[in-house]
Amino acid sequence: MNSSADESTTCARGGWSADFATRPSNPPIYQTTAFDLEGLEQLDAVSSGEQHGYIYTRDGNPNHAAFAADVAALERADSGAVMASGMAAISAILLSHLKTGDHVMAARVLYGRTWQLLADLQRAFGIEVSFFDANDLNDVRSAIRPATKLCVVESISNPLVEVIDLPAIAELLGEIPVVVDNTFATPCLFRPLEYGAKLVFHSASKYLNGHGDVMLGVVAGERVALTKTRRVAALYGFNAQPFECWLASRGMRTLPLRMRRVSESAQQVAEFLAQHSAVSRVFYPGLKTHPSHQLAQRFLPQGFGGMLSFELKSGVSGVRPVFQALAHTLPFSPTLADARTTISYPAGTSHKFLSAEERRTYGISDALIRVSIGLEEPTDLIRELDASLRLQH
To answer: Residue 96 falls within a domain, yes or no?
Structure first.
């Protein structure tokens, strides 16, 4: 830069240096709104895809591309796209595949916000929605209509951690695309695209990042389907932030190790809770008593994940004392998949948007506590849970 330039000019045009001659050990963060172009010819070339490059971060950014490509590789997908959150991801999928008069079918046990989004689309946009029992293939078959354009399921359900028979469901649906929320399982434990799904999405805020400091979503699947979803995401402003993607890319380097650890720990904690006198029921697919145990053995050979739920014998009256007793060790947090163990209350957080009757119908009781197992020593978790549950007597 010209050393004789005015101070204001120097400051306004600062922050640059010659490119490094060697590659950095970690990828840089492209924290920029837009990208400078050499002229209209390059604008046309990048816009058309003739030349690789970026124009505006809402439409694309190197950090977006890096994280999406890594997730797509793990999911064995053709392509990937990042969004501002898991809800932005499912919103982009639905808005790019459905129009007024279309019908979407969904598993009745879903993350509560997904359920709420589907209900809102039905009310506001005239998209028909019906819910089915993913454990009952006859119910799945009965939910199919001539206008069905999409089916939404979770590989491991929230909060009852049920494992679906995805190949059987995909076979029943035929050409109807199946969209799978794979947040609980991650591609380390299950890859839905290998079992008939067309698109898979994650709340990347959870296990993919794994450190409780990112708000991010990601979609992976067939390139043609992703092109439509990516266009809708850019149009509606569902774009992710470069720094969030960079953090998630960093977090994902330890994903296989973390999933192995939380699966092993969750199994030990679930077995402990299953024999505890203050607990009436434990939901974990690694237990022989879980309805999905056989499916879990078939589809999750690398581990059953780090999520479990349990019901208190004392009913809803016992929930508050447990949360209070654990406040300084296993804190109440309305999220999951942090490096630390957290607990949550589905009836008051993720599924509060359902009526009490709907929750009862779906098996989500007011005495249900959900546990997201972290990286702590499992014997410490068992000791802390035991101390809180002894208050029930």
So the answer is: yes
Calpha distance 267→295 (Å, rounded): 16
Which amino acid makes up residue 293?
Answer: H
Per-residue pLDDT tens for 23-68? 888 899 999 999 999 999 999 999 998 999 999 999 999 999 999 9
Q: 86 with 148: CB under 8 angstroms?
A: no
Q: What is the pTM of this model?
A: 0.94
Q: Where are the alpha helices (DSSP H) in the chain?
A: 7-12, 40-48, 62-75, 86-97, 112-125, 137-143, 166-173, 186-189, 223-236, 242-252, 255-274, 293-299, 319-326, 356-362, 378-389
* Cα–Cα distance, 61 to 53 (Å, whole number): 9
Place of tokens 């992703």: 226
Whose tokens are 């009952």? That residue is 136
Cα(46)–Cα(233) distance, integer angstroms: 19
Residue 362 lies in a domain: yes
In total, the chain counts a number of residues equal to 393
Dihedral of alpha carbons 79, 200, 205, 239, sign: positive
| Residue 28 is assigned to a structural domain of this protein | no
pLDDT, one tens digit per residue, over 261-303 is 999 999 999 999 999 999 999 999 999 999 999 999 999 999 9
Rounded alpha-carbon distances, angstroms, from residue 261 to 255, 257, 268, 302: 10, 6, 11, 11
- Could you give the CA distance from residue 114 to residue 128 in angstroms, rounded to a whole number? 15
Residue 81 in contact with residue 227, Cβ under 8 Å? no
Question: Is 208 found in the same domain as 270?
Answer: no
Integer Cα distance of 393 and 391 in angstroms: 5
Residue 199: strand pairing partners: 179, 221
Residues 6+ apart with CB under 8 A from 242: 29, 30, 31, 32, 57, 61, 62, 63, 64
Report the C-alpha gap between 296 and 303 in whole angstroms: 9
Asked if 205 and 120 sit in the same domain, the reply is yes
Do 99 and 237 lie in one domain? The reply is yes
> Cα dihedral sign for 131, 135, 136, 142?
positive
Cα separation, 62 vs 28, whole angstroms: 9
> What is the Cα–Cα distance from 385 to 246, expressed in whole angstroms?
35
